[in-house]
């Protein structure tokens, strides 16, 4: 085996390896199959949760066919250190060594034994699968808006729970796609309408880390600004020219949380986001770790924040609300959870809709509320 790559191919390979490492469920070193065949360079990875294949043809210098299995993290480190090099050569030499060289640098890697899982010919579109076409811009927008939230959920995919997934749902005869993610204390909800989407229902639960991997892998690959998803059973496959990605889905029934956003509010108030975030920071100056429960009172045109600690004292601050409708109300929230939701909203003015003191509180930006809304659960605390 003998081939060379340029810096552009180096970047694509690093992104390919990085996406697979991020979704690795195995404890041992993940491996990658590299194959030169029919004047093509093929990279294949299977970590028992995600499976992907990347193919290059015109962008490489093909010299001799062959194949090798290398450790993913080791290869990623070498490629990262050589990212500014114009050309990197890979050559299989005697004693199963792989020589990686560029200018005056040379590294000889010991090839690994090929595992049964590393068979890239099995990665094909399954027969009788459901094809769902989604706009890349829509997926990227969802990922950008949701990623900071689900990063806080933890990155352990072994927690195979519905609360570690993003739910995509479309009802039959409707043009809307609804997207939900929750940690059981907070809910993020997005709803977008598409005039050209098929009149067919679908629903699937995608693990939170996987959406970011799809965006990373296919950002330079999608054609006509759309991606085709093929779903069969608990498997989802995404296909584009030269790149195939397959992952496991969570087959659990996702709770019907979207109805919570339809509750009729009895009280509504609008407040400046930055003022509220600053007030939360000051309010928690006395708080110990994991004790971030703040009392909130809406009194006429003011929002009053109070935090009390039996050993440290208490803080209190009033901030002006921009608009207030309904009666006065008192509720308690985990302020760190609220702060994370506030930062997730791009608008300067935030609207809070409340039905009752202990019912879910809906909050959204003044302008973006048509597409994005969030829920936080109040606490019974005084």
Structure description:
It is built from six helices and 26 strands. With 382 residues, it is an alpha+beta fold. The chain folds into three domains: 2-110, DNA Polymerase III, subunit A, domain 2 (DNA Polymerase III, Chain A, domain 2), CATH 3.10.150; 130-248, DNA Polymerase III, subunit A, domain 2 (DNA Polymerase III, Chain A, domain 2, Roll), CATH 3.10.150; 263-376, DNA Polymerase III, Chain A, domain 2 (Roll), CATH 3.10.150. The strands form four sheets. It has a nine-stranded antiparallel sheet. An eight-stranded antiparallel sheet has the order 6-2-3-4-17-16-15-10. α1 runs antiparallel to α2 (72-81), α1 (7-22) runs antiparallel to α4 and α3 (136-151) crosses α4 (208-218).
Question: Characteristics of this structure?
Answer:
382 residues; DNA Polymerase III, Chain A, domain 2; alpha+beta; 8-stranded antiparallel sheet; elongated; 42% strand
């Amino acid at each position: 085996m003998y081939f060379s790559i340029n810096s552009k191919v180096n970047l694509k390979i690093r992104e390919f390896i990085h996406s697979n490492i991020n979704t690795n469920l195995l404890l041992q070193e993940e491996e990658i199959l590299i194959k030169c065949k029919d004047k093509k360079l093929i990279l294949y990875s299977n970590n028992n949760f995600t499976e992907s294949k990347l193919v290059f043809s015109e962008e490489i210098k093909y010299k001799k066919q062959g194949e090798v299995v290398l450790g993913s993290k080791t290869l990623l480190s070498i490629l990262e250190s050589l990212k500014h090099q114009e050309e990197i050569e890979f050559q299989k030499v005697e004693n199963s060594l792989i020589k990686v060289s560029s200018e005056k640098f040379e590294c000889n890697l010991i090839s690994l034994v090929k595992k049964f899982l590393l068979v890239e010919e099995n990665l094909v579109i399954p027969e009788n699968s459901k094809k769902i076409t989604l706009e890349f811009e829509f997926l990227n927008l969802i990922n950008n808006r949701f990623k900071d939230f689900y990063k806080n959920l933890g990155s352990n995919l072994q927690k195979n729970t519905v609360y570690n997934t993003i739910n995509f749902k479309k009802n039959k005869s409707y043009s809307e796609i609804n997207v939900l993610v929750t940690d059981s204390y907070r809910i993020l909800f997005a709803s977008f309408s598409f005039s050209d989407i098929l009149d067919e229902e679908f629903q699937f639960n995608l693990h939170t880390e996987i959406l970011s991997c799809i965006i990373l892998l296919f950002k330079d690959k999608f054609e006509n600004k759309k991606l085709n998803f093929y779903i069969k059973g608990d498997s989802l496959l995404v296909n584009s020219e030269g790149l195939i990605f397959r992952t496991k889905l969570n087959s659990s029934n996702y709770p019907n949380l979207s109805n919570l956003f339809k509750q009729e509010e009895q009280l509504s108030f609008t407040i400046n986001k930055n003022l509220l975030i600053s007030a939360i920071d000051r309010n928690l100056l006395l708080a110990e770790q994991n004790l971030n429960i703040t009392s909130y009172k809406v009194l006429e045109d003011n929002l009053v924040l109070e935090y009390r600690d039996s050993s440290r004292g208490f803080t209190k601050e009033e901030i002006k609300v921009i608009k207030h409708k309904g009666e006065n109300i008192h509720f308690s929230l985990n302020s760190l959870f609220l702060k994370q939701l506030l930062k997730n909203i791009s608008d300067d003015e935030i609207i809070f809709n409340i039905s009752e003191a202990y019912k879910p509180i809906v909050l959204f930006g003044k302008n973006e509320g048509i597409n994005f809304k969030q829920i936080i659960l109040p606490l019974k605390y005084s």
